[in-house]
């Protein structure tokens, strides 16, 4: 993407896709589809991170849509999706998303699942619910052993709703630098625009679930291949990247575990070329 205007970048990607709602309580989950004519390979389902939306994948969709049919969700209570029925927990959210997959991919069509951060936390449960047809699960920056409660990932500043975009921008940029990126310079205007848009719509409370062992527990007896992609400088992981890697190696000795040098948590945005190539390798 050569243009530096964030709105042009986001609109160019969004307008190529089409919206597909699926039921969510009394409302809907919003899915977006790209590459609808790519029918030679099983489709890819992409799930974003906490307080995010489809735009967490804005630097990956242009590459992937050339080869695959993509179904990209806004999680319940995020983006343009309705809030989930209360009370909600990891199993109920996973059921909503699994039912959404059945809606946008009816029948027994096989698919591959790629999930970032909090989307990954729910993905082991989704894989078990979709055991009849899921081919692979790729976790991207997902806190397998739980989201850390200490360190720079928790050193975030509040961005009051009454601030103007000009006043809020440096606060969002600081939070992105602490939480999402290995290189502070990666918190560019596109990243700040995405963060501001997503936080204005985020209603799902996900941190308590992300700090639990639900993902680690659900990776046992996984009904599909597992792959992992992490940024070397991901600060969100409890206790650290090495321990998460060791856990995966113990329960899934054949799982691919790729570490992208110098990148942080939002690795597919910070290092899109590397991640796009890894995704093609892992899914293939």
CATH architecture: 3-Layer(aba) Sandwich
- CATH class group: Alpha Beta
Termini, distance in Å?
25 Å
Tally of distinct domains: 1
Tally of helical runs = 11
Helix content percent band: 25-40%
Can you tell me the CATH topology?
A: Rossmann fold
CATH superfamily: Alpha/Beta hydrolase fold, catalytic domain
Estimated structural class: alpha/beta
Mean pLDDT: 97
H/E topology pattern: HEEEHEHEHEHHHHEHEHH
Largest sheet, in brief, is: 8 strands, mixed
Our estimate of the beta-strand percent is: 15-25%
Across the major sheet, the strand order is: 1-2-4-3-5-6-7-8
Please tally the β strands and state the result: 8
| Overall 3D shape | globular
Using the CA coordinates, give the radius of gyration.
17 Å
Detail the poorly predicted runs: none
Description:
This protein is 37% helix and 17% strand. It is globular. The model has no long low-confidence stretch (mean pLDDT 97). The longest helix has 15 residues, at 90-104. Helix 3 crosses helix 4 and helix 5 (165-179) packs across helix 6. The chain has eleven helices and eight strands. It has helices spanning 6-16, 61-64, 90-104, 118-129, 165-179, 189-201, 207-210, 214-218, 241-251, 267-270, 272-283, and strands at 18-24, 27-34, 44-47, 70-73, 111-116, 134-140, 225-231, 256-260. It has 284 residues and is of the alpha/beta class. It has an eight-stranded mixed β-sheet with strand order 1-2-4-3-5-6-7-8, with helices on both faces. The two termini are 25 Å apart. It has one domain: Alpha/Beta hydrolase fold, catalytic domain (Rossmann fold, 3-Layer(aba) Sandwich).
